[in-house]
Specification:
The chain is mainly β. It contains 3 helices and 30 strands. The chain has one domain: 3 Solenoid (Pectate Lyase C-like). Strands 1-2-5-10-13-16-19-22-25-29 form a 10-stranded parallel sheet, covered by helices on one side. A 9-stranded parallel sheet has the order 3-6-11-14-17-20-23-26-30, with no helix packed on it. The longest helix has 19 residues.
């Protein structure tokens, strides 16, 4: 058995244990933890009710209610929120802010699908699907927003969190109904700079600029943001690593297709950024570089300081290594940028060290057959498919 087969078998066994015994899935680090009685909450959008207990036989209906119960909990150990397949209308921000308990690297808070992509019974229709339907606030994170307002799907205010196996759709608004307005969605936000260890795995983030724009899928301050085995399609920005000088970040085995801002946005993070096995195709920029001081000014303004003149290229650039990746048919490789208006300026790409990485003008062909497990992945047998980007930690069955 090779390493990928062993990983897949281990992961499937852990996932089965979750459903049978209430255990958390094994993390990438190989940690295995078990949830105590009452530390697992189950959701079902069709049969659930927010007055239920949250047990598998008595599921909740909304993520917001599950988050409230996490926040009120005074127990110890890990905690898991398990979403069954179905469509979840996200009518308010899912605020994860426990006041009376703390999580750790081995005893985590996990929000995950009941069935994960590497499980044999999984297909694309089984992914819990989150569509954002909350009213549009005229603020961004509590501050007046001159650009028209912004909504957060999930707000993470605790360390040691895993989000796994979910599909995030955008926000059904007109993003720019008049000049100067940018009504926007941040799918997953973590704004506190003192937090660490956020893992987002095997998720799909989809947007469409006409029907459900998705401004930023993931924006995170603090250390240890690990995004892997995800698909990003049709949004402005996939992931923003937002704290200058922060470290321990990773982006691996992700596929970005048709992103009309940039495939990744780094704000002066440390050069230990583990960037590998990613496919970035048909996008505007592969990589946006923002200086840490500029990002801090944006964060301090909470939207009010965004905008203005196009940014000048940073004078000193942190260098990053790009390993075994594939960049295809993108307009530009690198740019600098700041603010929600995405005021880009082309910059030299020499701050990126390309190791085993191909840059080509040829487009990537995407699997369009919805009945295949590889739906929305690069087609099997192509150069892009050999990179291993997409939802599966093991071979696609």
């Amino acid at each position: 058995m090779n390493r990928r087969q062993l990983m897949r078998a281990t992961f499937k066994a852990a996932a089965a244990s979750v459903l049978a015994h209430g255990q958390l899935p094994a993390q990438e680090t190989g940690a295995r933890t078990s949830a105590a009685e009452g530390n697992t909450l189950c959701l079902n959008p069709a049969t659930g009710s927010d007055t239920n207990s949250g047990a598998k036989a008595s599921p909740l209906r909304t993520l917001a209610e599950a988050a409230r119960r996490v926040n009120q909990s005074a127990a110890s150990g890990p905690m898991t929120i398990i979403l069954s397949e179905g469509i979840y209308a996200v009518g308010e921000t899912t605020l994860l802010k426990p006041e009376r308990r703390a999580f750790s690297r081995t005893e985590r808070l996990t929000i995950r699908a009941e069935v994960l992509p590497d499980d044999s019974e999984w297909h694309t229709g089984r992914m819990p699907t989150l569509i954002h339907t909350m009213p549009l606030p005229k603020t961004w994170n509590g501050r007046p927003d001159p650009l028209g307002g912004a909504a957060d799907g999930m707000m993470i205010e605790t360390s040691h969190v895993t989000i796994q196996g979910l599909k995030f759709l955008g926000y059904p608004v007109v993003e720019t109904p008049k000049p100067g307005v940018i009504q926007r969605l941040y799918g997953i936000s973590r704004l506190r700079r003192d937090l660490e260890d956020l893992e987002i795995a095997q998720c799909v983030f989809l947007g469409d600029d006409l029907t459900n724009p998705n401004h930023v899928s993931i924006i995170a301050n603090g250390n240890g943001v690990n995004v892997h085995h995800c698909i990003f399609r049709g949004q402005k920005i996939s992931v923003v690593y937002w704290t200058g000088g922060s470290g321990g970040h990773a982006m691996r085995n992700c596929f970005c297709d048709g992103v009309y801002g940039s495939g990744v946005w780094t704000a002066g993070i440390k050069p230990d950024f583990d960037y590998r096995n990613n496919v970035i195709a048909n996008c505007n920029y592969v990589w946006t570089y923002q200086g840490g001081a500029s990002a801090l000014a944006d964060a301090g303004g909470r939207g009010g300081q965004q905008g203005g003149a196009s940014p000048a290229a940073p004078q000193e650039l942190t260098h990053y290594k790009v390993v075994n990746s594939y960049f295809a048919n993108n307009r530009r490789l690198t740019g600098s940028g700041t603010g929600a208006r995405l005021e880009y300026a082309d910059i030299d790409s020499s701050f990126l060290e390309l190791a085993g990485t191909k840059v080509t003008d040829q487009p990537v062909v995407i699997e369009r057959d919805q009945t295949k497990r590889s739906y929305l992945h690069p087609v099997a047998g192509s150069e892009a498919a050999k990179i291993g980007a997409g939802l599966f930690m093991g071979p696609i069955a």
